[in-house]
Amino acid sequence: MDEALEELGNYIGGKIAGALQAKKIEFGELTLTVARSQILSVLKLLRDDGRCRFEVLIDLCGVDYPSRENRFDIVYHLLSPRTNQRIRVKVETNESDAVPSATAVFSVADWFEREAYDMYGILFSGHPDLRRMLTDYGFQGHPLRKDFPLTGYVEVRYDDVEKRVVYEPVKLNQEFRNFDFESPWEGVNYPLPGDEKAAGNPPSGNA
User: Fold this and answer.
1) What is the pLDDT of residue 147?
2) 93, 124, 130, 175 — which has fewest CB within 10 A?
C-alpha cells in the first residue's frame, strides 16, 4: 500500500513541482500540501490526469491553528472510484487572504466552502454564493475557531412582553468564569453562589 502511494506521490509531485510544498503518507493516505494560489490547477490535474482520476470530492473542511501566521488549513479529501484510492490535499491561509473557490472544478464544493466560511471565517474567492448556512442571521463570530468562547457572544430568548425572539449579550457571573480544570469527581476548591455553607465548619453534635 505505502509503495503504491509513494509511487503515486512521486508521479504527482513531478506534475505539480512548482505548487508542491510538502508530501507525506499518513493514516494510509497520501497527503499533499500545495500553494494556495495553485489549488485549482492541482485539483484539475488530480481530477483529469489518467494516472490519478480523483473525480469525487468527498469533503472539504477547515482546521484552526491560532498560533500560526496562516492559522487555517483547508483540507480537500478526494476519491478515485476507478483506482479505489484516496488523497488528501491541504492549503494554508489566514483570516484575510481568500482561497480560490473549488466550485469550478467540483460543484459539490459549494456547500462545503459555505460551511468553512460560516464555521471558521475562511474566505473563498469566486464562490457563487458565499454566505452563512448553519448559524442564524446576524450571528457574531465563527463557532469552530479555537478562540471562540464556549458561551458565544449573544443568547436568544423569547420575550413575553415584546412577543418576539430577542438577542442579548451573554452575561455570566464572575464565579462561573473561574474554571480550575480539576477532575469533575473531585469538585471545585471554592464555594459556588448559594453554596457558601459548604465552605464553613460542619455543625457540631450539640446543636
Assistant:
1) 87
2) 175
Residue 156 host element (H or E): strand 154-159
Ranges of residues in the chain with a pLDDT under 70 are 1, 172-207
Residue 115 has phi, psi (to 5 degrees) of -65, -40
Three-state SS at 46: helix
For residue range 22-57, list pLDDT tens digits in order. 999 988 889 999 999 999 999 999 999 999 999 999
Domains detected in the chain: 2-135 (3.30.460.80)
Between CA 73 and CA 52 the distance in angstroms is: 23
The DSSP line for 2-21 is HHHHHHHHHHHHHHSTTTEE
Q: What are 177's three cell numbers?
A: 468564569
